[in-house]
Structures are given as C-alpha cells and as structure tokens.
Amino acid sequence: MSRFFAQLFSPLFLLLGAGGFLLGDAATRGKGDLGPLDLDLTPARDVLDLGLMVIFVLVGFVVSRYVGRRLTAFAGAVLVALGVLGLATGESGGLGMKFSIAVNVFDLAAGALALLAAAGTIEAPEPPQGSFLRGG
Fold first, then answer.
1. Residue 108 CB contacts under 8 Å (≥ 6 apart), including other chains
2. Which of 66, 95, 121, 130 is spaced 20 to 30 Å from 34 by Cα?
3. Alpha-helical runs (H) found in the chain
4. Do 107 and 86 meet the contact criterion of CB atoms below 8 Å apart?
5. H or E element at residue 91
6. How many angstroms separate the CA atoms of 52 and 74, rounded?
7. Residue 10 burial class via C-beta count within 10 angstroms: exposed 0-12, middle 13-18, buried 19 and up
8. Which residues are CB-neighbours of 67 under 8 A, at least 6 positions away?
9. How do the pLDDT tens digits run along the chain, 136 residues long?
10. Which of 43, 37, 30 is nearest to 93 (CA)?
C-alpha cells in the first residue's frame, strides 16, 4: 500500500515543489499564490515538498516494502506535524514557512493517508508461483 500511495503522490509533490519555485516567494507581495487561491508558498516549503517527493520516489520505485513502510510513516508524521503547526500558528507562520488554510488541510489529509498507507502495508512474502493462494 505504501508503494502505491508513494507512486501517486510523487508527481503531486513534484508539482508542489517545482510550482512553488515558479510562483515565487510569499514574502513578496503578489507572489506565492495561484490566482485567487491563497497558498503562501515559500522557498522553505518548496524545498520540503521536493524532499518529500524524493522520499516518495524512493518508496514507490526503489526501496523494499519494509523500508518503504517506515519512510511513508515518517513522511506522514511530518505532514501531520506541519498541518498541526500551521493550524496553531495561522498565517503568521514559522520555520521560514507561511501556512494557509488550504495548505494546512492538504497537509493533514495527505499525512493521514500516508500513515494509513504505512499501517496497511503487508510485509509478508508473496505466495509462491502456482500456489492456491494466488488463485491458480
């Protein structure tokens, strides 16, 4: 489950990280937002999103299920912590980041899904070929 989740979220975090750099810094007036959508993206947040993307690429395409499960749980915990921090500090921000409501909701939802995906990952070995457990 972690691998599937990571494969889905890798392009999303690439879009968030790279798109954030293209939108500019939220400290500059009129930058860091996508039209009327208030995102308050900062370079620190963009680097964090790209770091999470690297973790998801590793989980989705490189590492074993055991390591992938732990990395997905770590990424989920980071996202939930960012969502809670954002709700606690509001738009004033912290850690070099600003936190809009849209980003806080996304962080909490993505973090909760990552934690669920990590908890739902089965680490048992695959049944052998020809086994009745495979249906054939």
1. 79, 80, 83, 84, 87
2. 95
3. 2-23, 43-61, 65-89, 101-119
4. yes
5. none
6. 10
7. buried
8. 59
9. 899 999 999 999 998 888 877 776 655 554 555 555 566 677 888 899 999 999 999 999 999 988 999 999 999 999 999 999 988 987 777 777 778 888 889 999 999 999 999 998 777 666 667 766 666 5
10. 43
Kindly give, in sequence order, each residue whose CB lies less than 8 Å from that of residue 101, ignoring residues fewer than 6 positions away.
Answer: 38
pTM of the model: 0.80
Q: What is the CA radius of gyration of the chain?
A: 17
> In 30-67, which positions are buried (b, 16+ CB within 10 angstroms) versus exposed (e)?
eebeeeeeebbbbbebbebbbebbebbbbbbeebebee
d(CA 112, CA 73): 9
Query: CA torsion, points 108, 111, 116, 118, in degrees to nearest 10?
Result: -170
Token pair 């936190």 is at which residue? 99
CA–CA distance, 37 with 127 (Å, rounded to integer): 48
